[in-house]
Amino acid sequence: MEEDTRELSSQKNVNKAKQVAYVLSSVGKLIYNTKPKYFVVVFLVNVLSGLLVLPSLYIQKQIIDSLVMYVGLDSFVMSDALWNLSILIVFSIGLIFVTHMINQVSSFFETLLVREFDTKLDILMAKKLASLDIETIESPRFKNRYTKITNESASRVYRLISPLSSIPGEVVALGSSIAILATLTPIAAIGVILSSIPRLTVASRFVKRRYEMVGQLAPIRRVQGWLNWYLLRNRNMMELKLLGLPEYLAHRYSQNASVILKTHQKFDFDQERATSISFLPLSLFDAAFTIYLAWQTLGKAISIGSFQLYYQAMRRVQSEFYNVSRSLISIYESYIYVADLMWLLALKPKISEVSGLSFETVGKIRIEFKNVWFKYKKTGKYILKGVSLVFETGRPVAIVGVNGAGKSTLLKLLARFYDPIKGEILVNGTPLNQINPESWRRQLAILFQDFEGYPFSAKETIAFGDLSRLSEIDDVKAAAKATDIASFVEKLPKKWENPLDPEFAKGVRPSAGQWQRLGISRMLFRSNAQVVVMDEPTSNVDPEAEEQIFAKLAELSGSKILVFVTQRFSTVRRAKQIVLIEGGKVLESGTHSALMKKKSRYHHLFDLQAKSYNFDHEKSS
Ligand SMILES: Nc1ncnc2c1ncn2[C@@H]1O[C@H](COP(=O)(O)OP(=O)(O)OP(=O)(O)O)[C@@H](O)[C@H]1O
Ligand SMILES: [Mg+2]
Question: I want to staple 356 with a disulfide (CB 3.0 to 4.6 A). Which of 290, 436, 476, 487 is the partner?
Fold first, then answer.
């Protein structure tokens, strides 16, 4: 990730314009490819709308000139005059009508395009995120930029589509209006543009200032985001109520809000003041030009209709010049934000999901950690300090160790979400980093300590274990029976289709232990996987169910690799091999009886738990 960022920032220094062009053309292509037809329609329709400016101004001139000519005519030619005028008026109104229609069509297709693009972008971003290294996703620098993208870029993209599609029409309209003015005097055309420049300068200056302001307010806004989440999104209200936090958090929220409001107020005030002043040259030119037109008209150099034509043309040049520039500015403004989005879409993972040797099982699997060293952050402390151990088909392993010892970290390396810094992990003798991660992960059924509870339906929450067998309801039921969660599901109003969140109709919230059973069932359903790993799977499960679950796991262990992490020494005893991790190393390893004989650390930890059980037992008896 760092390399990509560096690449982008050096590009920035070398050639800013090139980078702007690159980002705009990339996003332009993305938008175009979303729905080329819509894009073309919007583009053409806008050009057409620009083209209609010329005839409509001209007809208005004709109407006024005809009026002047026909005023006071004899009554017998009146009907002819009225007829001629009516035709012009119908034309003029017709043009207005057509322009309205065209604008409707344009905005209709623009809305469709924006909607399609929005969905496409969500999917693109989701896929990209899933392809990136966990290390990247966890880094604060990535988080910062990603938050900005999700908050800002999406809406900026709409703002990009709109000016991109309106520019062609605005340019045509501007060109036609300049052409009209130039027939009177080129000086007029130049004058309008020159007098419009202050207004533009002000507009563009405030775009930059707004970006700076957004950046400056970003940290405080992130805090606001969290506060808002706790206060307004109904997140774990029970604890908030218990601690009386809402009042306190609301106070913090309103303090932050007042800082944000004040900053915005000052910005808006400055902007309004500068904008009002910037209108002055324009108004002065306006007055001078209109007086000039009046003088020309009085001197009969131009007709009254032409007075109207030139006056309208001048107005039009003013507004279209402003529109074109405003569109360009807003494209640039969007660019600043969209660049972040393009940066995300261009990121490449270090651990590629698709490269490497495809892993196929041929009977037994042997995973060997050889002197593995690992730390999460380059600057951080080592979490694993030379771990060596072996997992083999048919030999269940229990991993024990105090909180923070590195047990879960070990499993994340096994799943290749991270690579070791030193040492290596071998699978049947092949280094894991030469194996295609996707094919490797197909062999893994890992229930992580912070596993997911999918709320959609009870059936899906289990069947997600193997997407290729989503509809195998009998297998889902069998997996649910193994953890004794089937009876709970069968009693739900919608049974296997029941949502697992009260947010949905008839939805329920499973208890912590019920969730764990659903999670274990999900991994049991993943029956094609040859490596079954459970990180504290039964910490919330009652002892009776735990017995049953471990009996089920034991059935599997003959043909698979089975690894479980647990704090309960009563279950640890079952494993053929126990590995005690401490201080990032394998401190002790062996069978329960061998480790007990050693009378060392394992013995001590086991004794502690056994004593507390005995103590409770004695007390109650
Ligand atoms: N993503 C991460 N980034 C930085 N540090 C991490 C990350 N995950 C874990 N750690 C750190 O690594 C150390 C080991 O964590 P790990 O989760 O492997 O411990 P554990 O043995 O599974 O503990 P527990 O028994 O509490 O589950 C801890 O000090 C933890 O703070
Ligand atoms: Mg853990």
Answer: 436
Please state whether the predicted TM-score (pTM) of the whole model is above 0.90: no
Question: Which residue has its alpha carbon closest to ligand 1 atom 5?
Answer: 376
Kindly state the helix (H) or strand (E) to which residue 166 belongs, with its residue range. helix 154-184
Task: State if residue 566 touches ligand 1 by the CB under 6 angstroms criterion.
Answer: no
**Does residue 308 or residue 204 have the better pLDDT?**
308
Please report the pLDDT score of residue 321 as a whole number. 87
**How many CB atoms lie under 10 A from the CB of residue 467?**
8
- Of all protein residues, whose CA lies closest to atom 29 belonging to ligand 1? 404
Quick one: fold of 2-346?
Answer: ABC transporter transmembrane region fold (1.20.1560)
Give the pLDDT of residue 516.
94
Measure the CA–CA gap between 6 and 349, rounded to whole angstroms.
16
Q: Ligand 1, residues 133, 143, 372, 376: which to mutate, most atoms within 8 A of Cβ?
A: 376
Which CATH class name applies to 454-527? alpha beta
Angle between helices 36-51 and 154-184 (to 10 degrees): 30
Instruction: Indicate the burial class of 531 (C-beta count within 10 angstroms; 0-12, 13-18, 19 or more).
Output: buried
Rounded to 5°, the CA angle 124-129-131 comes to 95
Q: What pLDDT score does 3 carry? A: 41
Location of structure tokens 């504290």: 536
Q: Is the pLDDT of residue 2 over 50?
A: no
* Helix locations, 386-495, DSSP H: 407-414, 437-441, 458-463, 473-482, 486-490
d(CA 538, CA 566): 8
Centre of ligand 1 from the C-alpha of residue 410, in Å: 10
Ligand 2 centre to CA of 400 (Å) is: 10
**pLDDT tens across 463-494, in order?**
999 999 999 999 999 999 999 999 999 999 99
* 355-443+530-621: CATH, from 3.40.50.1820, 3.30.565.10, 3.40.50.300, 3.90.1150.10: 3.40.50.300
